[in-house]
Amino acid sequence: RSPLLHRNHHHRRLLAKEMPFTPDNELDLLFPASLISPEVKSQLHTDLHVRRPCHPISPLLKTRLPQIRPLASTDHGRGHLSVLSVLTVATDHGEAAWKSQFDALRSAPNTYFGLVIVDKASDRIVGAGTLFIERKFLRGLGSVGHIEDIAVDKAQQGKKLGLRIIQALTHISEVSGCYKTILNCSDANVPFYQKCGFEKKENEMAKYA
Ligand code: ACO
Questions:
Q1: I need a surface site. Which of 25, 54, 79, 100 has the fewest CB within 10 A?
Q2: Its quaternary structure (predicted)?
Q3: Cα-flanking dihedrals φ and ψ of residue 181, to 5°?
Q4: Best mutation site among 126, 192, 194 for ligand 1 pocket (most ligand atoms within 8 Å of CB)
Q5: Is the CB of 154 under 6 A from ligand 1?
């Protein structure tokens, strides 16, 4: 076998074995995929390319670029909870309980926007975040976007995935008409959110049950 044939064969095998990736149109999504900023989608790909500036994006690499999309009803099986476990203990109550929470979120229209970043090669989730939209009587019956539960898999941190999640959630908040987007975080995460364009404002108060 020639080296080229061998390489193609090797690539085909890789694709066949490592590409159980499910495209958006085959998934049952929490909200319409059209709400994901096209700019953020393409930046996710540029980020990866910039790290390897001397190589053009090969067809094989294209199949491995991460994908940002709304949370899907089958994401329990793609490691959603293991990604969230970088935030706190993420107890798994089973797929049925996870799915019924997904259905509860979806039954409140235009309110919960959970999104994920999926590694295409493995079809596993490597990042996640949520926007919750609060409707008010104040501010001309305005709305506020709350960003919650931002998590990037430990092995993938520092590759701008967190930044892209925040940008995608802020885009949804803004196109939904929210007059501000807010979040709570630890002191250690303040520099990250400042890099995402957020500024420190007021205090967080909490009372645990
Ligand atoms: N301190 C200083 N700078 C930081 C930090 C930090 N803790 N984290 C990221 N940055 C900087 C990066 O260096 C980068 O700067 P650059 O543009 O100059 O290179 C910029 O912020 C963007 O960083 P990303 O690569 O996008 O960060 P990452 O993908 O690692 O995601 C995150 C950051 C979400 C905090 C991730 O590290 C994580 O999952 N941590 C554990 C869970 C957590 O703390 N989540 C946030 C909870 S708060 C909430 O959910 C509202």
A1: 54
A2: Homodimer.
A3: -125, 125
A4: 192
A5: no
pLDDT digits (tens, 9 = 90+) for 51-75: 565 666 666 666 668 999 999 999 9
Of 85, 195, 200, 201, best ligand 1 pocket probe by most atoms within 8 Å of the beta carbon: 195
